[in-house]
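Incident review: delayed structure delivery

Summary: a single-chain prediction request sat in the queue longer than the usual turnaround. Root cause was a stuck worker, restarted by the on-call engineer. No data loss occurred. The affected request and its eventual output are reproduced below so the record is complete for anyone auditing the incident later.

Affected input:
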Amino acid sequence: MSPRALRSSVRSLAGQGILSNITGNSATDCRQETVQGETHENKDGEEVALEQRPAKRHCTGLVSDSSGATSDAVSGDAATIVKSEESKDVLRDLMAAMSSVPTGEIAWGTGLGPDTFVAPEIDVLGLGPVSTPLEDHQLDSLRSFARETRINEIGTEWLSVPRNPTWLISGNQITCGNPQWKAYLSELVSKARENLGLGDRVLKTRLHGLYVWEKGSLWRNYHCTTHEKSRVGTLLIILNGGYTGGEVAIGAGHKDVYFEPARHSHYLIATHPGVSYDNLPLLEGHRLGLSYELLLPDNDTEEKPSLRALMIGLAQSECALRTQVEHWVAQVEADKLDNFPLIYVLGRNYQPEDHSLTKLSPEDRAKATTVERVKSKLIESYTLQAYLVSVTATSKNYGKAATRRTRYAITRAATLRGDPRPQVKDCVPDERGILQPEGFVDGAVQKKGVAGMNTTTKKMRTCILLVLERTLP
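Output delivered after worker restart:
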């Protein structure tokens, strides 16, 4: 087709309103212009000057060919609609907001499997070994010992207060005799450090005490109440099961987390200093827990991690992500960006049975939790749906790596809470919606082909799928 014929074809499509509805490989950024000084052919084939005519629609942007070069976007007889710079900015900023979510929980808890749990073999000074679960005579002995210690600290008036106490035996009266306990405790501290967002800081532990809860006992702040500059957290290791009740909620600011230790034979809870507690009493049985303080070493000169800084960071990242999602909505509403789902690649890969918030790594869980909070605060015209998905990128290399085609497919989907959603697998990801295509670089997207041969490579990544759904009026 000659340039003149092609120009006439584009004008014709624009005049019919067809060009604005053509969808190419990118989103559109179209504008109206008045065209002057151009010519067209009359029925006799003579060129006639156009003084002024209605504007044609055209699109700004460039499209890459297979060699990576850019040229004016042309597809068939019409210009290919390509994504505008403004739309690119929206997706880039949304990805940046997701990536900037700080890692850390105000409190974190997990069950400790009986197959891997290491018993500390506790010995109380003057009482001897303490088994778990406690025998009746041991519970009586611990109660009497703790009562006497409490009276010596506070005085006899403490006995006149009507309550079901939580008994505490100080750490300087306790030893842990199992030689494997030190290494096991170090593993638990590493998990707590990662989930509290303490980074790679070196931490020391100091045994604070042994807590004993019995029927009617309420939760007690299981950390030392005196201020110590080097303290950055506490660790509570619940040593037994077989009781009911005793649920606890730990909060800070507008955020709180809820734990049910009675569901597990052993349980671990790690917290920042300064959190608050709300709880239910034990209904049956008793519970035993070792409490440790997490301390920075004396030679640590870096800024001390703080609960306040974490809360500010989480609030700011939530606000930033909500703002970028609203920008996404605005671009879709203005027809500057097609409403295709977005895919954010997580830092780790997970088995299908691990597609839930509780089983994600601390870094990935922080991002998924922030997305979940943003979902409930979106503007009224749209709702944001989010899923944990397995995305497979399949790349076919034709003779050489520079000539390839990559397709993405969802092979498994679940809600952030872990409920399967098989219907989501029918969604075909648009390559424009992959916020980090480099997440697939080591596999399908950039594996070298063999000259003269066709090769196919695949790579699977666990991702968060974001779907923007318009609400009914």
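Verification: Residues 1-83, 443-449 have pLDDT under 50 and may be disordered.
Action items: add queue-age alerting; document worker restart procedure.
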